[in-house]
Specification:
Blueprint: E1 8-10, H1 16-23, H2 38-43, E2 46-52, H3 60-70, E3 72-78, H4 81-91, E4 99-102, H5 105-113, H6 123-128, E5 141-153, H7 165-168, E6 177-178, H8 185-198, H9 200-213, H10 222-230, E7 236-240, H11 241-249, H12 253-261, E8 262-265, E9 276-283, H13 290-300, H14 303-313, H15 341-345, H16 348-357
Parallel strand pairs: 2-3, 2-4, 6-7
Antiparallel strand pairs: 1-3, 4-9, 5-7, 5-8, 5-9
Helix pairs in contact: 8-9, 8-16, 10-12, 11-12
The structure holds fe (iii) ion (FE).
């Protein structure tokens, strides 16, 4: 994510009053069962107000398709996840937000802690999204998956050197590891998962091992770590899967050249698979257009939407029965750890304090 981008307000109407007016004719409270009928799809009108921390232009065609299929217009506000959470908190009961989307389970968890989600029941969402990738009471749902894994120098590192997260913190990689800073939500979720799996003591040892292994103080995003491996600054880097896949399959020739020297490994956590985070969303606590909000989530969870997000943003589908499209299909044969995203997300505050005490900048 380019989390440095300032909050953008897109397609906003004239303010809260206008939203209130529109919501009066949006058919709120109808529930999700209307969404499958062809008649409902062509006759329902209104708007849905989407607060999203996903900023990918490749998502825009999805929103257009939703409007074509349902007649429901999307008013989209983009921002950093915590800015959007703060905004919804300050708007309170008058918040026009219908749906909040973030690209990390921890951000969803923080929004939930702030009381910003309404639990919703949807047989469609329950059927499409595995239990461990949604909040148990229906407050948020995973809509795409991203593995937090390892890119390594193919000439210097053997695959068996990077087949577990433990090995990254071991002596083999002293001074040879690149990773971004501890304020990255992706790192917080990874360490949260280790705390959940191992308990705080072993996780703390791991965090200290990572700090000892850093080739340089954390700087840049995940792609910068991968480039640093190719440049010989380090031998291994921790990265989200889609950044590497995008570099390997995109149009940027220098990034493509980087990935000819670097391989992707999916380390296993306790032999159960790689740490997988989600991008996901939920219905806002005071959603003025609740039925439309559920329809948008159901649309984003549809096999077509999952395929679009996987193909265009190089993430993995959440549904096991949605085949990963190219180019991610070439990387999709890994085992994902079955840990509940809600469980590791709730560990983020603990992870943050552990990492900063260990000197992980
Ligand atoms: Fe990202």
């Amino acid at each position: 994510m380019t989390e440095t981008r300032a909050m953008r307000i897109i397609s906003m109407l004239a303010g809260v009053a206008a939203f209130g007016l529109l919501s009066a004719c949006s058919g709120q409270g109808a529930g999700s069962d209307k969404s499958d009928g062809a008649d409902a799809a062509t006759t329902e009108t209104g708007v849905v107000n989407l607060y999203t921390a996903r900023h990918y232009d490749s998502d825009l065609p999805l929103y257009e398709r939703f409007t074509q299929e349902t007649g429901i217009r999307i008013n989209r506000i983009e921002g950093k996840p915590d800015e959007l959470v703060a905004r919804m908190r300050s708007e309170g009961a008058n918040s026009p937000a219908d749906v909040f989307i973030a690209a990390d389970a921890g951000a969803l968890w923080r929004a939930d802690q702030a009381g910003l989600f309404l639990p919703v029941q949807s047989a469609v969402l329950d059927a499409r999204i595995p239990e461990n990738l949604r909040e148990p009471s229906g407050k948020w749902y995973g809509l795409s998956r991203r593995a937090r894994i390892v890119a390594y120098d193919s000439a210097k590192v053997k695959p068996e050197d990077v087949d577990s997260y433990e090995k990254l913190a071991g002596p083999r990689f002293k001074g040879r590891l690149c990773v971004r800073s501890s304020d990255s939500v992706y790192n917080l979720s990874l360490v949260g998962a280790l705390i959940e799996a191992w308990g705080p003591e072993k996780a703390d040892t791991w965090v200290r091992g990572i700090v000892a292994n850093m080739a340089r103080p954390p700087q840049g995003g995940d792609r910068d770590q991968i480039r640093a491996v190719a440049a010989g600054v380090c031998e291994v880097a921790i990265t989200n899967s889609y950044y590497f896949i995008r570099m390997a399959s995109g149009d940027n020739e220098s990034d493509k050249a980087v990935t000819t020297k670097v391989s992707l490994a999916f380390p296993s956590l306790d032999g159960k698979g790689a740490h997988v985070n989600i991008s996901g969303g939920g219905v806002a606590a005071n959603a003025p257009n609740k039925a439309n909000a559920i329809r948008l989530l159901e649309f984003l969870a549809s096999p077509e939407s999952q395929t679009h997000v996987a193909a265009s943003n190089n993430e993995f589908p959440v549904s096991p029965d949605v085949p990963p499209p190219p180019p991610v299909d070439a990387y999709a044969a890994f085992t994902a750890h079955p840990m509940s995203a809600a469980a590791f997300a709730a560990r983020q505050p603990e992870a943050q304090s552990m990492m900063s005490k260990a000197g992980w900048r």
